[in-house]
Amino acid sequence: MIHITKQGETLAIIAQNYRTTVQKLIQANNISNPNIIYVGQPIVIPGLPSPDSIPYTIWVSLSKRTLILYQNYELVKVYPVAIGRMLHETPIGNFVIVNREPNPGGPFGKMWLSLSKIHYGIHGTNNPSSIGNAVSSGCIRMYNEDVLELSSIVPNGTAVFIRP
């Protein structure tokens, strides 16, 4: 997969967001000076397929509190979700699923899908009554059976578009 460097990003930040190491980024991109990267620079993220090669996309509507799964631009399913609360808003933008952890426990329910923004993910819940509300610390919270279904369908590298 290719990440396009944004204003204020460093290799360390990019590595954190994609749960890899700076050294792996340096090697994959033949970077001679890791302190010099520029806005718009393409950075290869080793080990992640290009979202363009994956038939699935996920769209999250914060206002409707829904997660919509598409396959080849055809609607597959709409899931209800909980989103970030005031002062802990869910980030708006374009992300990808970078990894997953079954049974992370506690408030994260039965599955955690990490997004390409450190500390954010799509996950289950131990509080199903929270779904439909703005209550999380910024993550997309789903019913456990829904996040298990979603995670069985979409691979790492799947594009996630979060919109207001």
TrEMBL record:
Glycosyltransferase among keywords: yes
Protein name as annotated: L,D-transpeptidase family protein
Record: active site: 123 (proton donor/acceptor), 139 (nucleophile)
Cross-referenced CDD domains: LysM (cd00118), YkuD_like (cd16913)
Domain L,D-TPase catalytic: 56-163
Alphabetized InterPro entries for the sequence: LD-transpeptidase (IPR050979), LD_TPept_cat_dom (IPR005490), LysM (IPR018392), LysM_dom_sf (IPR036779), Transpep_catalytic_dom (IPR038063)
Pathway(s) served: Cell wall biogenesis; peptidoglycan biosynthesis
Domain LysM: 1-45
Keyword line: Cell shape, Cell wall biogenesis/degradation, Glycosyltransferase, Hydrolase, Peptidoglycan synthesis, Transferase
UniProt record similarity statement: Belongs to the YkuD family.
